[in-house]
Amino acid sequence: MVLYFYPKDMTSGCTIEAHNFQRDQQKYSDRNVVVLGVSVDSVDSHQKFCTKEGLNFKLLSDSDHKVTQEYGSLTNLGLVKFASRHTFIINPQGKIMKVYTDVNPNKHSEEVLAALAELQK
Question: Of 2, 5, 7, 14, which residue is the catalytic one?
C-alpha cells in the first residue's frame, strides 16, 4: 500500500501529485498496490476534488487529525493544521518499508514506483 499525506484539496502541488498517482494507477494495480491519499480536508471536499480532477482512487478524510498525527505528518501553521507531504510504503503485513518526508509532487509517483520495484524483487 502507498499511503500519502498531502496538505489541501484543489491546490496546485496537491493536484499535480494526485494527477500523477491517477496517471500511474494501472502500474500500481499491476504491482497489487493500492494508493490512498490522506488530508485533513472533509469528505465533501475530497468528493469535489475527485470529481473536478477525475480521480478514481481513494482519498481519506482525517478531519480529527488523529491518523495524520500518528504518522508524524501533522503540521501546525498558527491556528491552521494540515498534513505535511509525506508518503509511506507499507507491506501487506502492515510494516512500513519506506518513508518519504521530502516530496516533489511533480515526480513523486515515479519515485514511489521505482521504490516498489526494488522492494518487490
Answer: 14
